[in-house]
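Can't paste images in this forum, so I'm doing it all in text. The chain is below; anyone willing to post the predicted structure tokens underneath?
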Amino acid sequence: QLSGCLGLTGAGVQRLLQKCTKLQDLRIDLVPVLDRHLVNVRCTELTHLCVAMCSSLTDSGLVALIEKCPRLQCVDVSYCKDLTNATVCAIAKSCPDLKAFSAVGCTRISDMGVKALAQGCRALRHLNL
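Text version of the structure:
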């Protein structure tokens, strides 16, 4: 858990993820991560991802990561203001075992994204919008 580590940079997170390919749980909320830090990362073992309040993340960076994380079960993107249905649809398509999803404060996610989750993530038990 690296949540709120003020000295941690996006480049540091990128290096960590490139070296620790077996990582299962990543919590980097409040860390200044940018899209470019996530696009070339492959964490196929990741089951838990929390990027809440990473306000610089957009769909392109998160979708690039999520598409390479088919084992995700819990995802929290709360207060990532630039995320849209594109991220939610990528989760629905790439993460069939998702059990919990939180997107509190993500005002650009609509019914379309929620519908995609309902159709693609049959194991979903906890939804927090």
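The CA atoms of residues 34 and 108 lie 19 Å apart. The first strand starts at residue 25 and ends at 27.
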